[in-house]
Design brief:
This protein is α+β, with helices and mostly antiparallel strands. 20% of the residues lie in helices and 43% in strands.
């Protein structure tokens, strides 16, 4: 335990003392690891609730396989425990097309590419924080909101390697997009772990937004995604 605390303290000190414009050594090690590993196949269970449509709740199960041809990598498995209807497939396909980012640890590379972060020790972890995400690191397919979002990452040591356990991306204050949409709050919390082989995997991601969007009105949408590598 003492060695663990000393190492994490050293990582925090290295981050605070690194050259201007450079990220912490632990963060760079994580980025290099996920770049080398690349995407893997997974199954995702996505629970979606939205107060704008009366608080309805929908559970979708889909799968992603990077080995399949482009345009065929996503497959919808079920909606609310049943085989999807044609209408549900069309709505799901549109949602996938509107969200070009495939969730996974590989997303840590662009998201952590910012300048030197602030760092603080918290028990057995080091928490790194950035006031803004790198420009273009969180594409939405329509506009870039990264200038409105901050981030913090929890890092610990696993078998001698720095490991992200949680990343929180959030809007420090309300913001507008194109003067027609307003986000009062927006938070994305991603949890990570290492599997039996030591590979870093994404286990859960929860997105919650309180927003006013054109054609949808004002309300709170929450998407809770659980991931199972295949």
């Amino acid at each position: 335990m003492h060695r663990h605390a000393v190492l994490l303290g050293a990582l925090a000190a290295a981050a605070l003392g690194s050259a201007p414009g450079q990220a912490a050594p632990a963060i760079e090690a994580i980025r290099a690891e996920v770049r080398k590993a690349g995407p893997y196949a997974f199954e995702r269970t996505r629970t979606i609730s939205d107060t704008r449509n009366g608080g309805t709740r929908r559970v979708e199960v889909d799968r992603y396989d990077p080995a399949r041809p482009e345009g065929q990598r996503w497959t919808l498995v079920s909606v609310d425990g049943r085989a999807p209807t044609a209408e549900q497939r069309r709505a799901w396909a549109k949602a996938i097309a509107d969200q070009p980012v495939v969730p996974g640890p590989w997303r840590l590379d662009p998201l952590l590419a910012g300048p030197e972060p602030a760092a603080r020790a918290d028990g057995g972890e080091t928490i790194y924080s950035w006031k803004r995400l790198p420009k273009g690191s969180l594409p939405t397919g329509r506009f870039d909101v990264t200038g409105n979002l901050a981030a913090e990452v929890h890092v610990t040591e696993t078998n001698g390697r720095p490991t992200v356990t949680r990343m929180r991306v959030f809007a420090p204050e309300p913001f507008r997009v194109l003067a027609i949409a307003k986000f009062d709050t927006l938070t994305v919390v991603s949890d990570y772990a290492r599997d039996a082989a030591g590979r870093l995997i994404l286990t859960r991601q929860v997105t919650e937004q309180n927003a006013s969007l054109p054609g949808r009105g004002r309300g709170v949408m929450r998407v809770d995604m659980r991931f199972r590598p295949l």
